[in-house]
Write a structure and sequence with these properties.
Elements: H1 3-25, H2 27-70, H3 74-87, H4 92-107, H5 111-124, H6 131-144, H7 148-161, H8 168-182, H9 185-198, H10 203-219
Helix pairs in contact: 2-3, 2-4, 3-4, 4-5, 4-6, 5-6, 6-7, 7-8, 8-9, 9-10
Length: 233
């Protein structure tokens, strides 16, 4: 064996002896460290189990709320959602519960409460993929209130912020309708035309082209006839 390797092995052996000696001399400390590690593992397991149970419980409350909502029992649905928001808001079901609460108020025609719920959802949602749904819902509720001065900027902000989102063509359509209802026909026409360009061969293009027909008929200039009536002699 080369001398350099022998020296290295000797050094390792001396280090191991020192470690074993320290352990023998500090048994109480070693056992305390082991106990702390074991306790930490047990606590982590318990927390994980509780979190899993809480997540399942939240999902059950949300499922029940959905069933009440589908059955038209809005008050009962809201009670289930309140339980989720108070006790399980940090779980995924909490995000969906906030949005569903807004949907319930919207369905009931309570638009101010719906806006409040949607705004609350957009601020507290942890799943950022749900933020566009909350934002669009706020804008749609303002549109339902015929508050186009608030709805139109929110629709415009959405299409700029989420150009590739699958909701975006619908948002463009809502924007065009809002312009139209407000009497801003030039902007409505421009938005419909944009839809036909951005979403060819889709239902949105078909709807937009149908909407554009009324503008084409208005802009058509009637042709004057140069034919003079014949006078009978």
């Amino acid at each position: 064996m080369p001398e350099s390797t022998w020296v290295k092995d000797k050094d390792n052996s001396q280090k191991n002896d020192a470690v074993y000696r320290w352990i023998r001399e500090n048994k109480q400390t070693v056992w305390s460290i082991i106990a702390i590690i074991v306790a930490a593992i047990i606590i982590a397991i318990v927390i994980f189990i509780n979190l899993s149970k809480n997540k399942e419980t939240a999902e059950k409350y949300y499922f029940v709320a959905q069933q009440y909502y589908a059955a038209g029992k809005m008050d009962e649905a809201l009670e289930q959602l309140d339980i989720i928001e108070k006790n399980f808001s940090k779980y995924p079901s909490g995000d969906f519960a906030r949005l569903l609460k807004g949907d319930i108020y919207f369905t009931n025609g309570n638009y101010p409460k719906a806006i409040e719920a949607y705004i609350n959802a957009s601020r507290k949602i942890s799943n950022k993929e749900l933020v566009p749904f909350a934002s669009y819902s706020v804008a749609k509720t303002y549109q339902a209130l015929k508050d186009y001065d608030k709805a139109i900027p929110m629709f415009s902000t959405f299409v700029n912020a989420y150009p590739d989102h699958y909701l975006t063509p619908e948002v463009y359509m809502s924007l065009a309708i809002s312009y139209e209802t407000k009497g801003q026909n030039d902007l409505a026409k421009e938005t419909y035309q944009k839809i036909t360009i951005l979403y060819p061969q889709t239902q949105w293009e078909s709807i937009a082209r149908e909407a554009l027909k009324k503008y084409e008929s208005k802009s058509a200039v009637p042709q004057s006839s140069n034919t003079q009536p014949k006078v009978k002699k």
